[in-house]
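quick one
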Amino acid sequence: MKVSVSFIKSKYNERETIRFIDQTNADYLHVDVMDGKFVTEKNYTFGQIKEYVKETSKKLDVHLMCENPHKYIKDFALLNTEYLIFHLETVNNPEEIINEIHSYGIKCGISIKPDTEVIKLKPYLEKIEQVLVMSVEPGAGGQEFMPEMIQKIDDLKTLGLTNFLISVDGGINESTIDYVRNADMVVSGSFVCLSDNYQEQINKLR
Ligand code: DX5
Ligand code: ZN
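structure w/ D-xylitol-5-phosphate:
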């Protein structure tokens, strides 16, 4: 099980948190970007993120919770980004965004909110490298895992496609991890970053 760690909810400030994550064997640093439109909260500017990620050599798994993903692609292409993920709900022409992300040599992910059905992703699945299944409403760390989302992992699995990784984001901890064993990756924020020993928490998830 791959683990991507989100730093938005932590006992420490962003730089310190990212430095601690860097010292673990986490596979990715998950960067949550909130624009105050698609989700209520607005968190970081690109300038801030650019400074924060200097604290790590981890590859970035960037989760755009933003109304207009196009606006962010060029910027994040400048960083150590492996996956750039946009929300299906935010665009009229997903293919255009997929192509734009790929044009920078970056892998593309699409995320769906709890209310969005997997079937809506169908036309794009062969073209992308990650599906990010939200297991909480996007917008904040520290929320409770929604067990109804487990079915989405199985639905994606039964398609038999191997070009994309299935990641689950929200409310992942040492108990809920057992529900998502079929996924390829989990995003974990508060479970790791509110603890005193990040590596120990990651070990529990793996
Ligand atoms: C939610 C974010 C998640 C969140 C995960 O809007 O996309 O990445 O930070 O945090 P936890 O693990 O605390 O649910
Ligand atoms: Zn996220």
